[in-house]
Amino acid sequence: MPFGRIGLPIGLLFALFLALPVVALLTRAVFGGSLASTLGERAVLDALSLSLVTSGASLILTVVAGTPLAFVLARRRFRGARLVETLVDLPIVLPPSVAGLALLLTFGRRGTIGAPLQQLGVELPFTTAAVIIAQVFVAAPLYIRAARAGFAAVDRDLEDAARVDGAGEWQAFRLVTVPLAASALAAGLVLTWARALGEFGATILFAGNLQGRTQTLPLVVYSEFQASLDASVAAAAVLVVAAVGVLVAVRTLGWRGAGVRGQID
Q1: What's the predicted TM-score (pTM) here?
Q2: Which residues contact 13 (CB under 8 A, 6 or more apart)?
Q3: Contacts of 108 (CB under 8 A, 6+ apart)
Q4: pLDDT digits (tens, 9 = 90+) for 226-254
Q5: Ramachandran region of residue 80, left (φ > 0), alpha (ψ -120 to 50) or beta?
Q6: Rounded CA gap, 74 and 68, in Å?
């Protein structure tokens, strides 16, 4: 097949183009400098700790608030459902700088919600809480989309069978719906955590870049680029390793989900 013979080398070259920058970064991190000592620098350690804490907090908030919303969107048809779905998905396609500006205009000192909070003595911009809010805003839609698809794919006859056997609504949801949608939920969690961990644009506009307070790993990559290239590369290498782990996890969960769906079918 002529196209196949031409497409193979072009495809391989393009794959090499996509992989080479990441390989170059990891090579520089491992062989081009003292990675271990660089990772021990205060700025990198503070950013790593803050990133893990804030991304974990944003993940918990996303699960608590996003799971009911995803279930409603998957199971209930109501007037305005399409609008709600569009609004939920909107942060995914917004440029990060626009997301940060929108958050600042909403929760800033003179913002729609920020002004009343200011009168109550609550300040959100340029705090650790602002980092979490920014992460939730940009990352939560990924979990909601995955959870919505997972809940929609569950066979309702199995839930009805559980109710016939005496299970209540909460028991049917916890013991039947969640386990059957588990692969989609887990994949959504992993993607959401990775997106929160790598958030940059909304964070720097809404939360700033204060070491130990709002400076996450992506901000270290940016701020240390001029002062200490090794620190910037080390922080970037951590994010690359996390991204690779996320891809492996999502693919594994996807294969398991396919196996579960095959057994159900």
Answers
A1: 0.85
A2: none
A3: 114, 124, 125
A4: 777 887 888 888 888 888 888 888 777 65
A5: left
A6: 10
